[in-house]
Amino acid sequence: MVTLAAVPLAALMLGVILELLLGRFLRPHAKGWLAFGSGLTALAGALALLPTIAAGGVTDGTLFAWDKGAPLRYHVDGLSLVFTLMATGIGTAILLYCVHYMEHEHEGTTRFYALMLTFMAGLVNLVCSADLLLAYLSWEVIGLCSYFLVGFWYKDPAASEGARKVLVMTHLPGYALLAAILLLYSGTGTFLWTDPAVRQSFTGGFFLLMLVAAMAKSVMFPLHTWIPEAMQAPTPVSALLHSACYVKAGVYLVARMYSLAAWPTSWNTLVIALGCVTMLVGALFALIQADLKRLLAFSTISQLGYIITGLGLGTDLGIAAGIFYCASHGLFKGTLFLCAGVVQHATGTRDLTRLGGLAARLPHTARLWLVASAAIIGVPLTNGFVAKWLLYSAALDAGQMLVVLIAWLVSVFSSFYIIKATVAVFYGELPPWLQERHIEEAAPSMRVGMGILAALCLLFGIAPQLLMNWVVTPAVRSLAFTGAGHVSWLGIPTGPAGLVGAVAVAVVLAAVLVGLGLYGLMKRPGPEPVGLFTGGDPLPVSDSVVDVADFVGPVAETFAPAYRLTDPDPFYLAVWERLRDLVGRLDRILTPLLEGHPLWATVAGGAAVLAVMWAF
Amino acid sequence: MVSDSVAANWDPAFLGLFLVLFAAVAAFAKVFPQGNRHWWTLFAWLAVLVAAAMLLRDGWTRRLLLDAGAFVAVALVWNPGTPEAARAARTYLALLIVSMICLTGGMLWIREGVNPPLSSWNQAVVGLLVIGFGLKLALVPFYFWLPGVAAAATPMTTVLIVSVVDMAAFSDLAHLRVTAPWVFAHGRSLWLAVALLSMFGGALLALAQRDLKRMLAFSTIDDMGYLLLGVATGPGIGLSGALLGALGHALSKLLLFGAVGMAEARLGRPLTLDSRGQAARCPVSGAAFIVGALGIIGVPPTFGFVGRWRLYLAGAEYGGGALVLAMALATSLALLYYARAIHRVWLGTVADTTLPREPRLATITLSVLMILVVTLGMFPGVVIGHLP
Predict the structure, then answer these.
(1) Which of A329, B74, B333, B382 has the greatest CB tally within 10 Å of its CB?
(2) A403-407 contacts at long range (C-beta below 8 A, 24 or more positions apart)
(3) Which residues are within 8 A (CB) of B220 and not within 5 positions of it... i.e. 6 or more apart?
(4) Cα separation of A533 and A510, whole Å?
(5) What is the pairing mode between strands A70-76 and A59-67?
(6) In angstroms, rounded to a whole number, what is the distance separating the alpha carbons of residues A210 and A196?
(7) d(Cα A571, Cα A562) in Å, to the nearest integer?
(8) What is the pLDDT of residues A437-482, one digit of tens each?
(9) Which residues from chain A sit within 8 angstroms of residue B339, using beta carbons?
């Protein structure tokens, strides 16, 4: 069975080797298909594990001796499988999209595909490894892959600086994870998290160390500021980074800590607090973005807040909500990024103030975007609705009214910024500069890649029990929780709160139907810009259209104190500048003194050493 | 007395690595001349002396050969004949002589006994050994010769010093850890203090440098601090971490100096933080610098991680969370200065990319070394089997 568990990793690594060996002889198109084939094989391997894991089974075994005392040992349970399926499934859809997207790149496509496959392999190995040291190795491998992929266009200063921020801000907190693992080892004598000795020794200190590492990976406040800078990467990289392979590593670590210890209430409170602050900060910053990818990046921060909050609740339903949300987010965020890539590919810009009216030119992309937008807002019939519903139910069950209120407020903000982006990109009139440009709809392979993800958003919105029963519930059970509750069609809980839920969904659906009916009865609005009543004389024509700037400006002004308070970057910058000043002064004093008079300096140093030895 | 044969298990691994380094240095020097024809003669002498020393198990002959190799290294530094090179070589020579006096005195006194001699001078002897090894390995507060040598000597000469002469001396220190453990038990606090001072002093001063070769010199001091910490906390996981770390250090430093040397030779001036976008001119050198930097910092999956996690574990077992935190802090500083060098010097735009392709032999050499650093990091069991 362990051989089967190794298939995803083996398929992906074989793909890497083939890309490196054959890269010189293959055209970008062929490299893309090769990578897609590797991803598909890995996905097949992961799916083959599904029946066993869904039945409550676990796959255990040693693959090979990596280092003395640290074998590559796998323990594949329900939680591992969720993330393996996300990495290989969403990753493969993104690779399919890449085939056309990357075929016009003149250089670096071998590097690109090798890194994308390594990225996926890194997450698979992280979540399947029973050995914490090898899990750390994978943790850093995916960190390096994201660094190199964000800096893919390394001759562009913005990409290079973005990659630097990714490296520094995610690698440094990673030492907290390494410290936790090594301190645990020195106390227990094992690197295997499955060893009962680990559970007995896991204290609050280890929890905090691991949480710090997870915070940086999963963009939790205040370690979240690297992700907007990572938007300089090719769009498929952003999609993979946000949906499946990077930010989800931190989610995995937080969830896995339920396997390592029974959480006291204080740990839950801390994680819930972090989740709530993160979802609020992410949404606030998303509101004022005028760059499509940066907006999506801040929305990822916010959505990760939901996921972490769900996990922090620490109840059966809370864990289920967190994991369901995590998988759902992967699907709709992947779709949104890929659609954003099509827009950028077609127009050459991500600036919302310069876009508009693209639904007419990119109809397929617009439809897919709408599905994913509906999901992220939480519209019924989409997986996002089920995820939010589960989260609210879990918070209500746990008596966390404040969490419900914050989550509701953030949902409202999410609707604002997603609708802002949707209208700014796809609706209204095509700007003059785009009217003369040839705007090309996504190629079929790109549409299929996006379409699969969007279709799954709908499938798991209409029949969420498929995801819940086959994937989420085994994951919840693998974390020593008894069950995840049951959901039926459209996400209606069939537990004690089922009746209330059913009525609520019926009300929402009725409202949607009434709205559609009214819309159909009324005259369709024309393509003219929306007029503004100013209370007096009309505005000049150029000011009479509500655009992104009209939205961003007032919001930025209204929430200005909150933005100042919740942006940690000025603090990080001040620390860096102080450090630079300090070392500059140190160098100016020491270098002439010591290197200018080496013999005297040696005599002084030697005397100090002998004096110390004499004294102690 | 303990038989040296027990402790000599790692010598074949070091010898094998030195042979790889000699081949790489020769290939590189063939493409980018490192000095006049005497440079090659001196290089050959250095290779023979160090290789012979690593084959010998007798302590004194071995030390004599290694000291002779160090004197040849001084001559290599002098070889370019510039005033800066002469000054750096004189400083190196003077401090080398002081180091040899201290080490010879210390070794004569202890005679590598498992137990300390019955004498009240033992503390002073440990002090002499700290000074001697401190000077030889360029540890804080005795590092003064290395930055000058790195700036004035040619890159491959510096590689021969930091990756071969220094690492051979370090191997000697590791032997002492096994044959005369009391030396480290008596002065453990002092050894640890020197290790921590080197880690932080080297890292902070590296962060202050604008010249890349001087930065790499301070990075060597920083890294030597980790290796010394492993020896001081040994003999188990700490010593094996230090030995693996030394092997990784030697390989990574060759990549770093090789990359800088190739870019400088093509650019015609020293690389500083103002030299932007060099990877566009020299892509293989840029990749080599990044891999070398990751190896030195100990980022997985490079070979540097294999030694570094053991060193961290030794720190955890000896000093608990506080020592691990200190080590992580010093490593963070290393990441900061290497990330700055990578992004200011190698990545980003460059005005002129019209230079011809990088020489084939040099790029093949650097590529093979990069593959070695990553492959050994992914499958470290290959080397582990040759270590105690």
Answers:
(1) A329
(2) A403/A272, A403/A276, A403/A309, A403/A313, A406/A276, A406/A279, A406/A280, A407/A276, A407/A279, A407/A306, A407/A309
(3) B138, B146, B150, B162, B166, B202, B249, B253
(4) 32
(5) antiparallel
(6) 18
(7) 15
(8) 889 999 999 999 999 999 999 999 999 999 999 999 999 999 989 8
(9) 164, 167-168
Token pair 């990409």: residue: A159
Sheet strands (E) in B299-357: none
**Cα–Cα distance for residue pair B134/A605, rounded to 1 Å:** 10
Decide if B312 and A178 are in contact by the 8 Å CB cutoff. yes
pLDDT of residue B86: 96
Touching A: B residues 273-302, CB under 8 Å:
277, 279-280, 294, 299-301
Q: Which residues of B fall within a CB distance of 8 Å from A178?
A: 309, 312, 328
Per-residue burial over A144-181, b = 16 or more CB atoms within 10 Å of its CB, e = otherwise: bbbbbbbbbbbeebebbbbbbbbbbbbbbbbbbbbbbb
Q: Which of residues 257-276 of B touch A (CB under 8 A)?
A: none
Distance (Å, whole) CA A256 – CA A427: 43
Q: Do A171 and B123 touch (CB under 8 A)?
A: no
Q: Which of A119, A160, A184, A203 is the best substitution to test chain B (most B C-beta atoms within 10 A)?
A: A160
CB pairs under 8 A between A and B: 158
- Rounded Cα distance between B376 and B228, Å, is 22
B5 falls in which pLDDT band (50, 70, 90)? very low
Is B305 close to A594, i.e. CB distance below 8 A? no
Burial class (CB in 10 A: 0-12, 13-18, 19+), A469: middle
Beta-carbon count within 10 A of A607 CB? 12
Q: How far is A593 from chain B (nearest CA, A)?
A: 10
Domain map of chain A by residue range? 1-177+226-253, 323-509+542-567, 569-615
Whole-number Å distance between alpha carbons of A373 and B269 = 54
The rounded percent of chain A whose pLDDT value lies above 70 is 93
Percent helix, strand and coil across chain B, each rounded to 5?
A: 80, 0, 20
Distance CA A378, CA A384 (A): 5
Instruction: Give me the residues of A, 36-95, that contact B with CB < 8 A.
Output: 65-68
Q: What is the value of ipTM here, to two decimals?
A: 0.93
Of A157, A183, A613, the CB nearest to B324: A183
For chain B, the C-alpha Rg in angstroms (whole number) is 20
Residues of A in contact with B102 (CB under 8 A): 606
* Residues of B with Cβ-Cβ distance to A609 under 8 angstroms: 127, 130-131, 134, 190, 194
Q: Which of 431-460 (A) contact B at CB < 8 A?
A: none
pLDDT by residue (tens digit) across A543-570?
A: 555 677 778 888 888 888 888 999 999 9
Contact yes or no for A178 and B309 at CB 8 A: yes
Contact between A487 and A390 under an 8 Å Cβ cutoff? The reply is yes
Asked if the C-beta of B20 comes within 8 angstroms of chain A's C-beta atoms, the answer is: no
CA distance B41 to A581: 45
| A605 at B interface, C-beta within 8 A | yes
Locate B346 and state its tokens. 């190698």
